[in-house]
Design brief:
The complex is a heterodimer. By secondary structure, chain A is mostly helical. Helices cover 51% and strands 0% of the residues of chain A. Chain A has 3 helices and no strands. Chain A has helices at residues 3-16, 36-50, 71-85. Chain B has 2 domains: 4-239, 3-Layer(aba) Sandwich (Peroxisomal Thiolase, Chain A, domain 1); 250-396, Thiolase/Chalcone synthase (Peroxisomal Thiolase, Chain A, domain 1, 3-Layer(aba) Sandwich). By secondary structure, chain B is of the alpha/beta class. Chain B has an 11-stranded mixed sheet, with helices on both faces. Chain B has a two-stranded antiparallel sheet with strand order 2-3. The chains are: A mainly alpha, B alpha/beta. The A-B interface holds A 17, 37-38, 40-41, 43-44, 47-48 and B 63-64, 67, 125, 127-129.
């Protein structure tokens, strides 16, 4: 796990109130206790931490460009947005 | 018609963080007014208020709750928890109840913090729970969630009369049989830079003290906090052997339809008379009035004239407790109801602090100095708001 993946994982773990070391990349955030408000809060922290704007609409989480179905997909989404920022 | 009794009370304010402490402080003549402490207070010209101090907050508050609860919601939750515990109602008994709260400014600290972040500090985003945190109904909603209340629940906002309007509406829910139990009161947390700055602009705040009905009065002093009561149908309360603090017997509300800030004698008189009529009380039966008594020139003059008109030359004892707990705006009527309960339940009338020489023009029996022992069978609690909205509660002693 590189630095970006570790920081994203820590943010998700913090919002889910679990130990970051217990999180695996294939975990579904909802399954580890991140409800919809928790995900919205996690995305806010991610935006602040990385200086990016995450295209996530809580009304239609399945139809946005930002996949939250697993920790790995969130990490990949953040990586894409950070590199697009340049 | 059903009768409505108060079977629980809770509060947090500058005098104390619970009901026994607050009533003891009111009767001992203590004041919660002191130097204000918050960010940028040095940029204000008014720097006194009745601010809550040394409160540890709500035990067991989670991180999620911390991000959802503005200070006004925290005050409301603390007051509701105390009231529910005092009433001794089970979760099942509370399920049909609702909660109606008065607040003038709702989550103003949340508005302020986030405007500061985006305007003054140039930040690009605010926390995602900003909207559910600042909304006026956040406090009743969280009380409903916490205690499982499924009846009519919402906030009402009528500036300084908010809490009395809330209590009056909840009283009618019970009296008219729609709910056996209701929670009601008010919550306000606007002692912060923006809140004071706005009031300062209106030039009605005193720079040096609150002196209701005194000839030297020079304005109001703001306070904060919450007070919440459990209102219960009398038969329901009796059946479970509940302790009863007082009966709410009537409620009167009127609008001046005149000026947006200047008080009207006529509107105040009509609200007091409506409360008396609903309670089936004659003016002679009322032994105490907790006045709105803000300590402004205009309010106290108009209120004294209204009291003379309703009660005649030998009227009831009158006091204003605003120099003790401050003018807590949308919560103030609820805080003042504690003084009314002390009069009815303990036979002790809290004094009007700050009033040393009653304005000779008033012709009203103002209780000054120390608490006065009196047998009070019935009392009124006045709230008169900016906007010309008047809300008066009539209460009776439990025989």
């Amino acid at each position: 796990m590189d630095d970006l993946a570790r920081r994203v994982t820590e943010i998700l773990a913090q919002q889910a109130l679990v130990d970051p070391s217990s999180l695996r990349l294939e975990d579904d955030p909802a399954a580890i206790g991140l409800d919809s408000l928790g995900m919205v809060e996690a995305i806010f922290v991610i935006e602040e931490e990385f200086g990016i704007s995450v295209p996530f609409n809580a009304n239609t989480p399945d139809q946005t460009d930002f996949d939250i179905s697993s920790v790995a997909s969130v990490v990949a989404g953040v990586r894409r947005l950070v590199s697009a920022k340049g | 018609m059903r009768r409505v009794v108060i079977t629980g009370a809770g509060t947090i304010n500058a005098l104390a963080h619970d009901v026994p402490g607050t009533i003891a402080a009111l009767l001992a003549g203590q004041s919660g007014i002191g130097p204000l402490q918050f960010r940028d207070v040095e940029r204000l010209s008014i720097r006194i208020g009745a601010q809550i101090r040394d409160w540890p907050g709500i035990a067991g508050m989670t991180a999620r709750e911390a991000s959802l609860w503005d200070p006004f919601t925290r005050y409301a939750i603390a007051a509701a928890d105390e009231a529910v515990a005092m009433a001794g109602l089970s979760r099942d008994e509370l399920a049909p109840a609702g909660v109606i709260l008065g607040t003038a400014a709702g989550g103003i600290a949340t508005w302020e913090d986030n405007y500061r972040a985006v305007y003054a500090e140039g930040r690009d985003r605010v926390p995602p729970l900003t909207v559910p945190r600042l909304m006026h109904n956040a406090a009743p909603s969280h009380i409903s969630i916490r205690h499982g209340l499924r009846g009519a629940s919402f906030s009402v906002s009528s500036a300084c009369a908010s809490a009395n309007h809330a209590l009056g509406l909840a009283f009618r829910e019970v009296r008219e049989g729609r709910a056996p139990v209701m929670l009601a009161g008010g919550a306000e947390a606007m002692l912060l830079f923006g809140g004071l700055k706005a009031w300062e602009g209106l030039r009605v705040l005193s720079p040096d003290g609150c002196r209701p009905f005194d000839a030297r009065r020079n304005g109001m002093v703001m306070g904060e906090g919450a007070a919440i009561f459990v209102l219960e149908e009398a038969g329901h309360a009796k059946a479970r052997g509940a302790m009863r603090l007082a009966e709410i017997a009537g409620f009167g509300m009127t609008a001046d339809a005149a000026d947006i800030v200047a008080p009207s004698v006529e509107g105040a008189v009509a609200a007091m008379q409506a409360a008396l009529r609903e309670a089936g009380l004659s003016p002679q039966e009322v032994a105490y009035v907790n006045a709105h008594g803000t300590g402004t020139q205009a309010n106290d003059r108009a209120e004294a004239a209204a009291l003379r008109q309703v009660f005649g030359a030998s009227g009831p004892a009158v006091s204003s407790t605003k120099a003790a707990h401050g003018h807590a705006i949308g919560a103030t009527g609820a805080l003042e109801l504690l003084a009314v309960i002390a009069a009815l339940h303990k036979g002790q009338i809290a004094p009007t602090l700050g009033c040393e020489s009653v304005d000779p023009d008033f012709g009203v029996d103002i209780v000054t100095g120390a608490a006065r022992a009196a047998s009070v069978g019935a009392a009124l609690s006045n709230s008169f708001a900016f906007g010309g909205l008047n809300a008066v509660l009539a209460l009776k002693r439990i025989p």
